[in-house]
Write a structure and sequence with these properties.
heterodimer; A: alpha+beta; six-stranded antiparallel sheet; five-stranded parallel sheet; 17 helices; 20 strands; 12% strand; B: alpha/beta; Purple Acid Phosphatase, chain A, domain 2; six-stranded mixed sheet; nuclease (chain B); hydrolase (chain B); DNA_Repair-Maintenance_Comp (chain B); exonuclease (chain B); Metallo-depent_PP-like (chain B)
């Protein structure tokens, strides 16, 4: 597509503007705000919005305050056609498409028809390329503006030899990826559908293992039961064999048993006769024993009687000696009592004598004590308390009054009354006899002098004297109160009273000390108690005779010692007599018992002999002994016969075998019981359920495994398909990236004048980085100027590759503002040297920047 | 000796399950194995048979539910003929045996279990000599041991046994192989008039005596059985043995082997499926080999998918399946791939041709996804 001309009227700030473009490079210059960018927008809106559009975008294009419709007209070549396309919006709407050249030359379409025809024309254009080929002021400097351009890819495909992606590969890839996504995670690990299928297999296998285990247990139980039953059958057969053998042995043992019975009977007879012999022997022995017992008893009686006599004879002298000793003790005790009494009387006498002396002493002390107590009481009663402190106080007051009076008198008026006789006057209401001296005193206070019946005069002191007088009155009153409180009429009285009180108090103290000394450390109560006790002692009725206490005491002790000695002798004698008497009593008892024993033995012997004589017993023993000999002979004969016939072994074998058979029966019984138990266990099992569970588990494993395998096959197929597609896509992309990289490299080396310039291009044709002197700088890390230069070069490289049919104008709006002068010139040189079918339209406010483009068409707005 | 006719059947294996059957098909399969007992009864009446012998493996295992056992007995009762059941290796006597279970208390009067070795009188002139199994692993020839105990008799004597004749089993090491020569000798000597065998699931007649036979199972149990279930109608008349094979089963196991390399082959495979009758009771195992275009492979998938709705079961015998998908010109034209997609397809084709199964699957996926573009 090539833009030939663009006419804009009433569009934003543009009233009317028309630009004609060159097929090569056109530089449209004009100062800022003149509407360069609006020209590009106007062309875009011409293609995009119908004339009846009510879009805000269109409405905003209407010039402010003017009722005119924005209008755009463009003439451009697209494919084989050259058309003029005009549109007016809002007011006097109009759409006209005129075919100027090409197959439909001369055709003019209007309104919707024109719009549709224009859209159809435009649909043949690679709109991605159209959008990407412009670099507008302020737009982002993107690293990958061209990845969606089919025109570029077609061009690269052609350059790479026809290997690029076609229209079907892309959607196919998407479907394959979607299919793979069904089975795998984005990182291509097993997805939920595969994991779940695997889990189902695991679960089914676990169930099968459990079911198999249950079934195996069942089988094991049946096998065990079979084994038990086989054992039981074997044991039963063995038992039957052994029972047959036992029957044979029983027959032989029966005969031996008969012989043994006869022997046992004979043996029993021997044992019976042996008991008879023993019985007869016992009777004979008993008779002999009885006779011996009589003899022994009689001898013992004789011996005991002798002993009794000896003991009686030894006792008599001891009894006589005991009496003497008892008499001696009685005499001694009588003497002792008399001495004891005399001693007690003498001691009582001595105690009373001492008590009497003490009584006298205590009585004297108490009398003195009482006298002193009386004195003290009297003194205490006469003692009038007088305080020395009060005395000091009144003396002080008296002194203060005297001082005050002296002071008052000194400054006060005086009254002097001279006696003219001995009249009686009344001073302040009190009759006063006026002596010879009359009256001379200071007037300290108001004073009334009355001569009764004649005159009454009042002398009034001055003001100051009155005040002193009141203080004097107060002190006097205080003095009077203090004296009254002590019961004194004057200070001298009080002094006397204080002196008397202090002397009385000292005397009282001395009396009290004397009284304490009189008590000699005891209290009066103790002395009085002692006095009572002593009187009681003296009033006792006991006899009290004066005697030699020491001599009496000595005598008393002597007698006690002698009595103790004789008491020991007496005790010894009494013990001996008691002992002898006990022995004698025992001996006497024994004699009596022995006499009874002799009598009993004699009676027993006589009774036995009455029943059977001694001779008869002897005969009976002899006969029994003979019978025993005969019976023993018979036993020996039968035993010899038993041994000779082997009967013992037969019987033993039979018994042992019988026991063996019983054991076998017991074992068989146990085994049969085991079989019964196992059978019961087997019967109680839900065998069909176990089998059913197993069958089902087997089916589940089969199904789950098949499902999992099927899913895995499909998943693997999807993954393989995806992998192979991706691999080839990647290889293809690498092939068609190369021409693009070559074109960009060429422009870059020209611009940077550096043969090391290269670019790194991703599969989506985005420029991810730039190499310069071997250093790779990611696109996003480049400076703004470098990114702007790279963005221009990317568009120029693209324009150099696309076919003329696919070519679209490269629009550069106010670019290269960030480039230094050197780079600016080189980029402009690259633009000028570019051999391309693409139109290049540069909008700029600085025409000077592009002065190097000598062949460019220049349009000033 | 009077003539006697009876039905020889075996290996009913009632309660058998097959892992390749869905629940629905399994239920029908289980039901059919019981229902075919009635068919045997009808056959017996139509053939004038006096009784039916089942030569072992009546039940699949000892753990059947009471319901399964009782339903089987009910079907047996409906035959109104004496039926003699021999315990085999699947249902031996002994501890835990299915024959001692509670369900057998409902055994109908016309059913006799041959539960011990030796003769069972069928009639005054006919006796059955039974060789039941007491254990799954007897460790010896389970049939011929009894011959030494047999005395010549005027009765018609039928030996009912279960085991593998040594002439039919390549596993000569097996301890339980049956001595064919001994049986043939017994037949030739007139000690036994007929040997009704079970265990081998084939309908087979001894080419030397004509009297030592397998009846085959009444309903097919696996792909190795090439027909529907069979039973033998046997008539013994003096020394003459007449056996007639009857196909009585409904279920069929079929293997379809086909080399498929074109749409024409797919069509032939379709006709293979179409030729099978009673599809709802047919279990088809496919053994497919060949190289298919993507379109043909897709068509094959569609065909097989469609058959799964018709047949009781259709499944691949994976071990023997060898299909390679290789795109042809038509595929490429249909897909119209170019660019890297076309290159990817070329690589996958090469991998598939080398036998890479995943590459074949990937091509089919490419076909499916690409064809929708």
């Amino acid at each position: 597509m090539k833009l030939q001309s663009l006419r804009v009227k009433n569009f934003r700030g543009i009233t009317k503007q028309e630009v004609t473009f060159d097929d090569g490079v056109t530089i449209v210059s004009g100062h800022n705000e003149i509407g360069k960018s609006s020209l590009i927008d106007a062309f875009d809106y011409l293609l995009k919005f119908k004339d009846n559009s009510n879009s805000q975008i269109i409405r905003s294009c209407q010039p402010v305050g003017r009722d005119v419709g924005p209008e755009v007209e463009a003439t451009f070549r697209i494919g084989p056609e050259v058309v003029t396309y005009r549109k007016r919006w809002i007011s006097a709407r109009e759409t006209v498409l005129s075919f100027v050249e090409g197959p439909r030359r001369g055709t003019t379409l209007k309104s919707g028809q024109a719009h549709e025809a224009a859209e159809e024309l435009w649909s043949n254009l690679d709109t991605h390329l159209w959008e990407a080929s412009r670099l507008m002021q302020g737009s982002a400097l993107s690293r990958s503006p061209l990845s969606a351009s089919t025109a570029l890819q077609r061009a690269l495909d052609e350059q790479a030899g026809g290997t690029s992606e076609d229209g079907t590969s892309g959607p196919l890839m998407e479907r394959v990826t979607a299919e793979a996504n069904r089975y795998y995670t984005p990182t291509r690990n097993d997805g939920k559908i595969l994991v779940d299928a695997g889990k189902r297999v695991t679960v089914a296998e676990e169930k099968l293992a459990n079911a198999q285990a249950e079934k195996d247990k069942l089988t094991a139980l049946i096998d065990e039961l079979a084994s038990l039953e086989a054992d039981a059958a074997d044991r039963k057969a063995n038992l039957e064999d052994q029972e047959a053998t036992l029957a044979e042995l029983a027959e032989q043992a029966e005969k031996a048993q008969a012989l043994q019975s006869a022997r046992e009977d004979a043996q029993k007879l021997v044992e019976s006769i042996e008991r008879d012999v023993a019985d007869a022997s016992e009777k004979v022995a008993r008779r002999e024993h009885l006779a011996e017992a009589v003899t022994t008893a009689e001898e013992a009686l004789t011996e005991l009687s002798g002993t009794e006599k000896t003991q009686s004879e030894a006792l008599a002298p001891l009894v006589a000696s005991l009496t003497d000793t008892q008499d001696k003790i009685a005499g001694l005790k009588s003497d002792l009592a008399a001495v004891k009494k005399a001693l007690e009387s003498a001691r009582e006498f001595e105690r009373r004598t001492a008590a009497r002396l003490e009584l006298d002493r205590v009585t004297t002390l108490l009398a003195d004590y009482d006298t002193l107590s009386t004195d003290i009481a009297e003194l205490e009663g006469a003692l009038v308390p007088a305080s020395s402190e009060s005395l000091e106080r009144v003396v002080d007051l008296e002194r203060d009054i005297a001082l005050a009076e002296a002071a008052a008198s000194a400054g006060a008026a005086r009254i002097r009354i001279t006696s003219l006789g001995a009249p009686t006057i009344v001073l302040d209401g009190e009759e006063t006899a006026l002596g010879d001296d009359g009256l001379d005193r200071a007037v300290l206070e108001e004073l009334t002098v009355e001569i009764p019946g004649m005159v009454s005069m009042t002398v009034v002191p001055d003001q100051d004297a009155d005040s002193n007088s009141r203080e004097l009155v107060r002190m006097r009153a205080e003095l009077s109160q203090a004296l009254a409180a002590e019961g004194a009429s004057s200070v001298a009285d009080l002094k006397t009273a204080v002196t008397a009180y202090e002397e009385g108090t000292a005397k009282l103290s001395r009396l009290r000390e004397r009284r304490i000394d009189k008590l000699q450390g005891s209290s009066a109560e103790q002395l009085r108690d002692n006095l009572v006790r002593l009187k009681a002692v003296l009033s006792k009725p006991e006899e009290a005779v004066e005697g030699d206490i020491d001599a009496l005491t000595e005598r008393h002790e002597s007698l006690e010692a002698e009595i103790a000695t004789v008491d020991e002798i007496l005790s010894d004698q009494q013990n001996r007599i008691s002992s002898l008497r006990t022995e004698l009593a025992a001996t006497t008892g024994q004699v009596m018992n022995q006499r009874l024993a002799v009598t009993r033995a004699q009676a027993d012997l006589e009774t036995e002999r009455a029943a059977a004589t001694d001779e008869a017993l002897g005969e009976s023993l002899k006969a029994a002994t003979m019978r025993l000999t005969e019976a023993k002979d018979k036993v020996e004969s039968l035993e010899a016969e038993l041994v000779r016939s082997g009967g013992h072994a037969l019987i033993t074998d039979y018994e042992l075998h019988k026991k063996h058979v019983e054991g076998l029966r017991s074992l068989l019984s146990e085994k049969t019981s085991d079989v019964r138990v196992k059978r019961h266990v087997l019967e109680t099992l839900q065998r069909d359920a176990i089998q059913l569970a197993f069958d089902r588990a087997l089916s589940e494993v089969e199904y789950a495994t098949a499902e999992r395998d099927s899913l895995q096959s499909r998943a693997l197929a999807a993954k393989l398909l995806e992998d192979v597609l991706k691999k080839h896509k990647s290889e293809t992309q690498r092939k068609y990236i190369e021409p693009f990289r070559g074109a960009l490299q060429k422009l870059g080396r020209l611009t940077y004048q550096n043969p090391t310039f290269d670019v790194e291009i991703a599969d989506d044709l985005s420029v991810s980085g730039r190499f310069l002197d071997g250093d790779l700088i990611p696109f996003d890390d480049l400076s703004t100027g470098a990114r702007e230069q790279m963005s221009i070069l990317i568009r120029l490289a693209t324009a150099s590759l696309v076919s003329p049919d696919d070519a679209v104008p490269v629009l550069l709006d106010d670019t290269l503002g960030y480039s230094d002068r050197l780079k600016l010139h080189r980029v402009i040189d690259a633009i000028g040297s570019l051999k391309t079918a693409s139109q290049i339209i540069i909008f700029t406010a600085n025409e000077d920047r592009f002065a190097g483009l000598s062949r460019a068409r220049r349009v000033s707005l | 000796m009077t003539s006697v006719t009876f039905i020889h059947s075996a290996d009913w294996q009632l309660g058998m399950t097959r892992k390749y059957l869905s629940d629905e098909a399994q239920a029908r399969y289980t039901g059919a194995r019981v229902d075919t007992i009635r068919t045997i009864g009808e056959l017996a009446h139509s053939e004038g048979a006096q009784f039916i012998v089942v030569a072992g493996d009546v039940f699949e295992h000892a753990n059947l539910s009471t319901r399964d056992v009782v339903r089987a007995y009910e079907a047996m009762a409906e035959t109104r003929l004496p039926i003699y059941l021999l315990p085999g290796n699947h249902d031996p006597l002994g501890p835990g045996s299915i024959w001692s279970g509670e369900a057998h208390s409902s055994r109908p009067d016309n059913v006799t279990i041959l539960d011990h070795e030796g003769p069972f009188d069928v009639s005054p002139s006919v006796e059955i000599v039974a060789c039941p199994w007491y254990t799954k692993h007897p460790g010896h020839d389970p049939v011929t041991g009894i011959l030494a105990s047999l005395k010549p008799t005027d009765k018609t004597r039928i030996l009912v046994a279960h085991g593998m004749l040594d002439v039919l089993d390549p596993d000569k090491q097996s301890e339980t192989l049956v001595d064919t020569a001994a049986l043939r000798g017994a037949v030739r000597d007139g000690l036994v008039d007929y040997v009704a065998l079970g265990d081998r699931h084939i309908c087979w007649t001894d080419p030397e005596t004509g009297a030592i036979n397998y009846s085959g199972t009444h309903e097919s149990t696996g792909p190795r059985e090439k027909s529907r279930g069979t039973a033998l109608a046997v008539t013994l008349d003096g020394s003459t043995v007449t056996t007639t094979r009857h196909e009585i089963g409904r279920w069929l196991h079929v293997d379809i082997h086909r080399h498929v390399s074109s749409m024409e082959d797919i069509a032939l495979l379709e006709s293979d499926f179409a030729s099978i009758t009673h599809k709802d009771c047919a279990i088809v195992r496919t053994v497919l080999t060949g190289t298919l275009s993507m379109a043909a492979a897709a068509a094959l998938d569609r065909l097989l998918e469609a058959q799964t709705h018709v047949f009781a079961s259709v499944y691949k015998w994976e071990r023997h399946t060898d299909l390679v998908v290789v795109p042809d010109d038509a595929d490429e034209s249909l897909l119209g791939l170019s660019g890297f997609a076309a290159e990817a397809m070329a690589e996958l084709r090469e991998l598939a041709q080398q036998g890479d199964k995943t590459a074949s699957d990937a091509l089919l996926l490419l076909y499916r996804l690409g064809a929708t573009s």
